[in-house]
Design brief:
Blueprint (H helix, E strand, L loop, with lengths): L13 H18 L5 E4 L1 H4 L18 E7 L15 H21 L8 E6 L8 H16 L3 E4 L5 E5 L2 E5 L15 H6 L1 H4 L6
Parallel strand pairs: 1-2, 2-3, 3-4
Antiparallel strand pairs: 5-6
């Protein structure tokens, strides 16, 4: 069960996040103690670093999963993905991501909390160099860590969204008519991440 999606704006805060994640998580756990509870961070589900100093105290224990979203434009303009050698840039971006969000599953012992990347994506019709570099970086790191993730999004378009009819979903894996892949090359790129690379 996922809690509030992509907190943002002036009303978001660490205190508010802690209060309502705890309240909602407890309510879900009482209703069904068998389900996992997904809690995304603040700032569009990209920041959980405040948990380093004070981890979340819950009554639903090992049912908690932290969720993050990551795009080429997360934590800076997309163009930065073409401004330095990819290996150097990728290392810096991964270090930044681990520092703000992914530290939760790299921590040792009881401090470790699973991480689910609930949204990762790039515009699918024409893959720009910056998007390609981002995807190469993320796919390699995700495969190395056997990370669980979800692509944004499957849908090719919408009947109605943002007061518009027939809106295209540029990040969609499917075409506007939902009848074929928007970009078969992109789907091939995702196959490495779909494999289970650790454990049995």
């Amino acid at each position: 069960m996922g809690l509030r999606n992509e907190l943002r704006g002036e009303r978001q805060s660490e205190a508010t996040w802690r209060k309502y994640v705890t309240l909602a998580g407890n309510a879900i756990h009482v209703a069904n103690p068998n389900v996992l509870i997904f809690a995304g961070g603040i700032s569009y589900a990209s920041v959980l670093s405040f948990l380093k100093k004070k981890p979340l105290s819950t009554t639903f224990g090992n049912k908690l999963v932290y969720e993050s979203h990551w795009y080429p434009f997360t934590a800076g303009p997309e163009k930065v993905w073409t401004e330095k050698p990819l290996n150097q840039l990728c290392r810096a971006k991964i270090d930044g991501y681990v520092n703000t969000t992914a530290f939760s599953f790299t921590a040792g012992g009881s401090a470790a909390v699973p991480l689910f990347v609930g949204e990762v994506g790039i515009p699918g019709a024409e893959v720009k160099k910056s998007s390609d570099n981002f995807l190469s970086c993320f796919a390699t790191w995700a495969a190395e860590n056997d990370l669980d993730w979800a692509w944004w999004g499957l849908q090719g378009g919408y009947y109605f969204r943002d007061n518009r009819t027939g809106m295209d979903e540029y990040f969609g894996a499917l075409s506007y008519f939902w009848d074929r892949p928007r970009n078969p090359f992109l789907l091939n790129r995702l196959r490495l991440m779909q494999l289970k690379n650790q454990g049995t």
